[in-house]
Request: fold
Amino acid sequence: MKKKNDEPKVRVYTRKCDPLYIAIYYRMLIHRISQNLSPKEMSFLMGKPLDFMGKVERIKFIRWMMSDFFRAGRSLNIDGLALIFPAVKADITEPFLYQISIKTYEDYVVYDMKKMDSEKEVFIDEFQLIDQRYDVDLYQRYAESEIQEVRDWLRSMSEEGYFQEGRTPLEIYEKSCADLEHRVKPIVILTILHERVNLKDVPVVNRVENKKGAYYIATSTVGI
Reply:
């Protein structure tokens, strides 16, 4: 039976964790949504695996290194980690069972977080946030002229030897905005950059991931 247009696809995840983590989760989600970034774009700018923030938002990861918070702050252009770390009462240390329902509608996504009330043994509302859908084909969302502009820029950077040394995603993104003199959407940079990464005949750049983060480097220099 075909779903009605107003019937969402719902994914539900549960995890037991401290209230501080959920407070940070909320702050992180608020900043990402307000800056019109998808989880994949934020992962890219942080130099993390591209599914990193998706897993975070499904409460798959609850332990971050301090460097991850600095990466998140830089990718969100946040001045100071205080905007990510909220003030939480010191006596709130007991972990709770949390449930996040991610409801995907035709045009938007709802994040519905609930916390288990141990006395009543029911989930109670913690917060609800609405985000747009980002899983629209790049070529449907952006003008061909914008895409071609970035494609030409990346090609010229490759030809000039820009990738002879490892370049972080955020470094590439910030340079593109400076060189093109306008804010480029990270998904455009990511998609076109990976066109070059995925070339089969003559690969131009490789994406390399390690414990320090991801970077892009010319294939001929990998391993040197």
User: Anything to note?
Assistant: The domain at 140-221 is CATH 1.10.10 (Arc Repressor Mutant, subunit A). The chain is about 40% helix and 25% strand.
